[in-house]
Q: What sequence folds into this?
């Protein structure tokens, strides 16, 4: 049974803003990430290395939502408009389906959403061709 294993040192090196999160809590975030992306042999992501990267993105997303970075919320998306007097900035993430709203709350979630796009598409599997045999007619 091939599963991606959480490596705290690699995760903290990739996301240094979460270096203050202890390993036990980060492991719980990883376990929660496995709810959103299947970490078993039945996962749509068959490559273990890619699955590990995606799960680390989700772990960072969950940690950011929990406020584990200690920073204020980052803006996600492109700047749609900006003002100078009384400072006003609005961001636009484009049109994403409803389930993407949860992921677009952080830069890590939006990165995961874009990276996991090939695995969220339906795969068409054609039915096997059936050759009808002609009946044998008697004269």
A:
């Amino acid at each position: 049974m091939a599963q991606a294993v959480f490596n705290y040192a690699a995760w903290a090196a990739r996301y240094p803003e979460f270096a203050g999160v202890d390993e036990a809590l980060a492991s719980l975030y990883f376990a929660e990430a496995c709810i959103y992306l299947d970490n078993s042999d039945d996962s749509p992501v068959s490559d273990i290395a890619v699955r590990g990267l995606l799960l680390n993105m989700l772990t960072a997303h969950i940690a950011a939502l929990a406020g584990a970075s200690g920073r204020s919320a980052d803006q996600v998306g492109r700047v749609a408009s900006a003002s100078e007097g009384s400072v006003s900035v609005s961001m636009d993430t484009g049109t994403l389906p409803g389930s993407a709203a949860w992921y677009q709350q952080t830069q890590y979630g939006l990165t995961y959403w874009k990276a996991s796009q090939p695995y969220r598409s339906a795969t068409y599997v054609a039915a096997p061709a059936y050759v009808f045999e002609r009946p044998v007619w008697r004269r």
Q: What stands out?
A: The helical segments are 8-14, 23-36, 48-65, 100-103, 107-115.
